[in-house]
Amino acid sequence: MEQLFSIKQVAYILKVHPLTIRRYIKEEKLKATKIGGNIRIKESDLANFSKDFIPNKQPASKSPRKMIYAEFNDADPLFQLQGKGASLDLAV
User: Fold this and answer.
1) How far apart are CA 48 and CA 82, in angstroms?
2) Distance between CA atoms of residues 46 and 21, nearest Å
3) Torsions phi, psi of 59, nearest 5?
């Protein structure tokens, strides 16, 4: 008898979210069977699906983001704060 997996088990195996598995079933990319009100995926169907499975990753941006850094100085509002941290000496 062939082993049946739940959506949560298949999601764990493929390292994706269970909603992603439900979407694959809805789009008919992954075959599933409803047994007693529960959705189950046959081991052979999972094996066939996983042959061609490539998890979607965020596409690399064409131009890398440039990070802008600014140096702190005495005019910065952070150093103008009053209260508990006002007594700290932040000079290095």
Assistant:
1) 65
2) 11
3) -65, 140
How many whole angstroms separate alpha carbon 62 and alpha carbon 80?
A: 41
Q: Which two tokens stand for residue 37?
A: 């009100």
Q: Show me where the domains of the chain are located.
A: 4-52
pLDDT tens profile 12-52: 999 999 999 999 999 999 999 999 999 999 999 999 998 87
* pLDDT tens digit sequence for 55-88: 665 555 566 667 677 777 777 776 676 776 555 6
Q: Quick one: pLDDT at residue 10? A: 94
Sheet with 38-42, side-by-side order of all strands: 4-6, 38-42, 33-35
Residues in the chain, how many? 92
Using CA atoms, how far residue 5 sits from 33, 39, 61, in Å, is 10, 9, 36
